[in-house]
Fold this protein.
Amino acid sequence: MPRLPRDVLVLASLENDEANRCVDLFRRPDGSHGFEEFRRDAEDAGAWTPVSYYAAARYETQAASLAAARRAVAWLSPRTPGSPAA
């Protein structure tokens, strides 16, 4: 599975309570925003592995990408620690 391109700037990384899932909110060099969900499992030596293909979608703002992530990722809630809206 592809990782995030090196030229994106990760603006926030939001983890679940178990610290085995996260959503990265990022900005591309062209100014568009996006997000991707990752998992971390012992069999992967603790490396973050993408689990979805959300990163291709483009949003105008970080807030729009966060709203889309909340709709797409069941465990991500408005009260997720580190969330820009928390």
